[in-house]
Specification:
Low-confidence stretches: 26-39
Strand content: 25-35%
Structural class: alpha+beta
Distance between the termini: 53 Å
Mean pLDDT: 81
Radius of gyration: 23 Å
């Protein structure tokens, strides 16, 4: 009987550890607190979109729900810097003087779900897209023009523009708009690993990385775009195109 009880206890402990790994929670196996109704604290993923390097102190990949987080940014620009959490501005910054220089600080509490933090100057970020710096735009447009240089009707640089919805360490999820190209008006959809991208026409987003272009499915299958990357890009895109996701509301 004692061996049976020990086996059951070992099984329960193993089960708790497996659940903890799957849901990203830190399970307290010590003594319980009668005044605490929740014996576990969950840590959630924080994805940071900072393509222009405004952060002066890196953030962690995961934080516990309710944990107070400080975002420290530089003062190298006169324009207003805006920090968004899941598309909502964190509001005005606090100026801090430290070690002989000023920096900006923004504050928020980690929500009880995976979140996206985006940083941009007021003239760089809109509800519809993440605007890339001039150097990156030029690189992507030049690569796209070179890719289509042997087309029957080659693409010219001045007719190409970009709409970006995800930036991940040199990987960009975006639309490449070409003025002279036409697209069907039917609603199209990409679903990759359960992540849905719904489009209002035949034009679909592409992924740019290291001089090459891929479909979202190709980028995912080749390990260029992770599942979390796809989910983050979809959340950013979906926030600006809610009318396409009415069935999910």
């Amino acid at each position: 009987m004692a061996k049976r009880k020990l086996s059951i206890l070992v099984f329960v402990v193993c089960l708790l550890l497996v659940v903890s790994m799957l849901c990203g929670c830190n399970v307290n196996l010590g003594e319980s607190n009668d005044n605490d109704d929740n014996d576990s604290v969950c840590a959630y993923k924080l994805t940071v979109q900072d393509p222009n390097g405004y952060l002066i102190e890196n953030l962690e990949d995961r934080y516990e729900a309710g944990e107070e987080i400080t975002v420290k940014t530089n003062m190298s620009h006169d324009e207003d810097l805006i920090v968004y959490l899941d598309g909502l501005s964190l509001g005005s910054e606090t100026l801090i003087y430290e070690k002989g220089e000023y920096h900006r600080e923004f504050y928020f509490k980690m929500p009880s779900h995976d979140a996206v933090l985006s940083l941009a100057l007021s003239n760089e970020f809109t509800k519809d897209e993440i605007l890339l710096n001039e150097t990156t735009q030029r690189e992507i447009i030049t690569a796209f023009v070179d890719l289509h240089s042997k087309d029957f009707y080659p693409v010219a640089e001045d007719e190409v523009s970009l709409r970006c919805f995800g930036v991940f360490d040199g990987v960009y999820v975006l639309f490449v708009d070409v003025e002279s190209w036409g697209y069907t008006t039917a609603i199209e959809e990409d679903t990759v690993a359960g992540v849905r991208f719904i489009y209002s026409c035949g034009q679909k987003m592409t992924v740019y990385s290291d001089g090459a272009f891929y479909s979202i499915a190709e980028a995912y299958e080749n390990g260029i775009l992770s599942y979390d990357n796809m989910l983050t890009a979809q959340q950013t895109y979906k926030a600006a195109h809610e009318f396409l996701y009415t069935e999910d509301i």
